[in-house]
DNA sequence: TGCCATACCTCGATTCTCGATGCATCGATT
DNA sequence: AATCGATGCATCGAGAATCGAGGTATGGCA
């Protein structure tokens, strides 16, 4: 079971990275993340939607309503903004700097029972 | 500036990894983390002590009071427990699985402005 | 017609965070 | 011997964050 903190820490970079690869919408993001993680990461809607709304309020992503191709069902498509792309670079840098610290320590002193 | 979430997510694995390398105490952990991160991670005492107390309540670490060598000043030394070592392995596995997802995505689709 | 998957959203009790604050000791400086 | 900064522990509580539960609506299908 993934810790709450780890899920929280990875949600922003994950959403931004996925949107950087192309626009998407809430339900699909949940599906994609479930697939990418092999089911380890199970976002609920109550988790994701507030994240999307917060990112949009920060102008890091933008949205448009559109009908799904094929069906007439409405979806809210999100795109990453220019601000969002630099935010993602920052997120990536931060993630990698912490990862580097941990990996260095683990290399020097491999955890074992 | 590192995000709150990232700081939170890394605090448990960091503390456990440092303690797995040898016992330590609060003030020293703060210093070590500051050095390891080149000043990017600045834990305050209000941040670290609750983490230590929670880990101790979960029996993942244990503590003993002792006088510092040289001075008579009292310190609370923390050690990782056997339970803690398996918890650390789990933390490591979880961290690396998320890191793998992100790195894969970033390799396939490198973030850029 | 009923039902499930899709698709969006908000609410609020519970939980968490961390800056502020407090206490005490040691060593060095004035 | 008084002061001060660094060391070292700890708690507190206003404010913030979380996310399961619940609400609404549509399309496709048997």
Describe this protein with a few key phrases.
globular, 113 residues, alpha+beta, 60% helix, 4 helices, 3 strands, homodimer, DNA-binding
> Biggest interface, and residues per chain?
A-B, 41 and 40 residues
Structure annotation, total helices of chain A: 4
- Biggest sheet of chain A: strands, sense, closure? 3 strands, antiparallel
Enumerate the spans of chain A where pLDDT stays under 50 for 5 or more consecutive residues.
none
Structural class of chain A: alpha+beta
Helix share of residues of chain A?
A: 55-70%
The CA-CA distance between the termini of chain A, in Å, is: 19 Å
Q: How confident overall, as mean pLDDT of chain A?
A: 93
Rg of chain A, rounded, reads: 16 Å
Give the strand tally of chain A. Answer: 3
Beta-strand content bin of chain A:
5-15%
Strand order of the largest sheet of chain A: 1-3-2
N to C succession of SSEs of chain A:
HEHHEEH
Q: How would the global form of chain A be characterised?
A: globular
The oligomerization state is homodimer
